[in-house]
Amino acid sequence: MLFMIIEKFHPGKVKLIYQRVDEKGRSLPEGVTYINSWIDENITICYQVMESDAIEKIYTWIENWKDIVDFEVIPVITSAEAKAKVLLQ
After folding, report:
1. pTM of the model
2. Which CATH number fits domain 2-87: 3.40.50, 3.30.70, 2.40.160, 1.10.3470?
3. Between 45 and which of 27, 40, 50, 82 could a Cys-Cys bridge form, CB atoms 3.0 to 4.6 Å apart?
4. Domain range list for the chain
């Protein structure tokens, strides 16, 4: 399953976020794969795609970051999967 993760950085914590990534990595639990991410130009919001077989593992990962980031988790499918789903109706 793919998940779009929208991360809203806590004010004044951006430097700490990048320092933590440098020191500890992404702190992903087993079964969660980082796909890619994009940051807004103000460096306040990250749009990230992750893959996991269970949403619970995504929430386990969030526990490592919720002190400096607020999260929204959205299950997503690829464009090809969406097309197939629509055309099979």
Report:
1. 0.90
2. 3.30.70
3. 40
4. 2-87
